[in-house]
Amino acid sequence: MPNSKTFTGGCHCGMVRFECTTDLAMVTACNCSICTKKGLHFAFLPPQSFQLRAGGESLKEYLFNKHAIRHQLCIDCGVAVFARGKKPDGTEVVALNVSCIDGIELAKLTMTPIDGRNR
């Protein structure tokens, strides 16, 4: 990732905090049921580019549909901070809720449309 930056962020109440390195080259605008209802925009990172800095004990896991993606929500404020899962080839991945990055301005990011509703 040639233009990668290190970002920090977390949930609304601050109990869950992370640090990650990414270029934000692909941020999803997915129309699946959960992304639509929660307003999620994900960037997909290799696990080694994501570090949970605080609040691991404050996470609740949410699974739905095929139970392939393990969504991680703060038990206090309810924010979906990130998810863990596997790419179609089996590679582990972290799906970071870009809205949780400190100071992020979603309007300045290029969103990649994903048709999750029809998969």
From TrEMBL:
Residues 7-115 form the CENP-V/GFA domain. GO terms for molecular function: carbon-sulfur lyase activity; metal ion binding. InterPro entries: CENP-V-like, CENP-V/GFA, Mss4-like_sf. Transmembrane segments: none annotated. Keywords: Metal-binding, Zinc. It holds the Pfam family GFA. Belongs to the Gfa family. This is Uncharacterized conserved protein.
